[in-house]
Amino acid sequence: MAIKGGGGSAENRGRSPLAMVVAVGLCCFFYLLGAWQRSGYGKGDSIAMAVASLGAYLDARGVIAMSFAPRDSHEAQVQFALERGVPAFIGVLGSIKLPFPPRSFDMAHCSRCLIPWSANGGMYMMEIDRVLRAGGYWVLSGPPINWRTNHKAWERTEADLAAEQQLIEEYAAMLCWEKLAEMGEAAVWRKRPDAAVVSCPTATPAPPRTCDAAAEVPGLTGESYAEENARWERHVAAYRKVNYRLDAGRYRNIMDMNAGVGGFAAAVFSPKSWVMNVVPTAAELSTLGVVYERGLIGIFHDWCEAFSTYPRTYDLIHGNGVFTLYKDKRCKMEDILLEMDRILRPEGTVILRDDIEVLLKVQRIASGMRWKMIMANHEDSPHIPEKVLYAVKRYWTADDKSSEPEPEKKMKKKAGSSSQERSSEEEEESTASSSEEKGSEE
Q1: Pairwise CA distance, residues 208 & 400, whole Å
Q2: Is the dihedral of CA 48, 18, 271, 108 positive or negative?
């Protein structure tokens, strides 16, 4: 589990007092958890040491964590984490890189995560090194740590566990990590902040964390970054006038399907909610690193594929220009809308911002999914082609007649009174003015 926090990065090679406090504090915390588990109360209870236990613990202390686990092996703990309102997604640490940019996290944590850290030439530890910032921490709790005490409970030989830990120590030294402490059930390593300076063979140059993170992204300047933030402040202010629940704590799990630099997430920031900032792989600029530099979290994703989460896990989905971005891609608009409907909770909200011609097509498709929708003009002027579509996913059952798709209701009303029907080609070519006339007729 990778954790986004406020870990410091000292410039000297010695251990700073803060580093020691963090290391000892974490070791004591996990030592108590390990003792609690060995006492018998924690055995057989997968929830107690679930993938998001530490995430929920740190969330109450102002630290946001990103948790992940496989879907089958961990008994839907990701779904349970999302039900608790803790950021999580389905994923594995394998041969494919994690969907994060380099130097994203201040700390990475593994508690009995069953990852063979000593296997495949240290490939998994190298991936942790990639996403870990210089000066960041890696916390390992579970096998093979404290193998002298637990080897019988783990049903493994002492020689096997000792060799595994020895390999982990060697790979950590090759990555220029320094071991700060090992106490009880946990061990803490630190990625040296001067790894590139001391000619570490595996180190990559890491620029210092700065306020102007946008300067590191080609095509993005400090001025455009500030303009983007100001623009989203105006947009979210307009959203709140239409949907007052944005300020009422109604939404806990929020997703931005095309996050950019995280302007929407920053504008709706609240201690009662969190935002999954998704940067599409089809986007022109790779801005996820900027999102993490702001203290937010996010993930790379291709919306032509299913998102790595369980059904009905998000309360609010926001999409800015998503359908225009995927207009000429290999997937259809229906595919993206169906995926949105899958991960959205019943009574959840969707806010889409796009060109009016695109939103009219979305409106026709979403009506078949029984979404309740309204269209609003751009907050600056009604003459701007960009509009905003607000939708709510209705809660309905198979025998529920009150939430029938809007096209069926229209056909019932017009049956027997209309002698002609508009063709599908004419509907696709309809303009904004014709849609307004159609709404007035209803």
Answers
A1: 58
A2: negative
Could you tell me the strand order of the sheet in which 344-355 lies?
A: 297-301, 274-280, 253-256, 314-320, 344-355, 386-393, 371-376
Tokens of 170: 């060697």
Alpha helix stretches (DSSP H) within 85-205 = 123-131, 147-154, 158-174
Angle at 96 between CA 91 and CA 100, to 5 degrees: 65
Q: Which domains does the chain have, with CATH numbers?
A: 2-191 (3.40.50), 213-404 (3.40.50.150)
| Weakest mean pLDDT among 99-108, 298-307, 429-438 | 429-438
107, pLDDT greater than 70? yes
**Residues in CB range of 327: below 8 A, 6 or more apart:** 358
Neighbours of 24 (CB within 10 A): 14
How many angstroms separate the CA atoms of 236 and 241, rounded? Answer: 9
Distance CA 275, CA 271 (A): 11
Q: CB-based burial of residue 28 (10 Å sphere; 0-12 exposed, 13-18 middle, 19+ buried)?
A: middle
CB 179 within 8 A of CB 188: yes
Structure tokens at 310: 């369980």
Residue holding tokens 């969907």?
A: 99
Residue 139's beta-bridge partner residues? 109, 188
- Do residues 309 and 343 touch, judged by C-beta distance below 8 A? yes
Tokens of 403: 């939430």
**Using the 8-state DSSP alphabet, how is residue 70 labeled?**
-
Tens digits of residue pLDDT in 171-226: 999 999 999 999 988 999 999 887 555 657 666 555 545 445 555 677 788 888 99
CA distance linking residue 236 with residue 137, whole number of Å? 36
Q: What is the DSSP string of 55-123?
A: HHHHHTTT-EEEEEE-TTTTTTHHHHHHHTT--EEE---SSSPPSS-SS-EEEEEEES----TTSGGGH
* Rounded Cα distance, 101 and 122, in Å: 20
8 Å CB contact between 369 and 359: no
Distances (CA, A) of 338 to 295, 367, 430: 31, 12, 24
Question: Who has greater pLDDT, 383 or 408?
Answer: 383
Q: How far apart are CA 349 and CA 316, in angstroms?
A: 5
Q: Who wins on pLDDT, 3 or 204?
A: 204
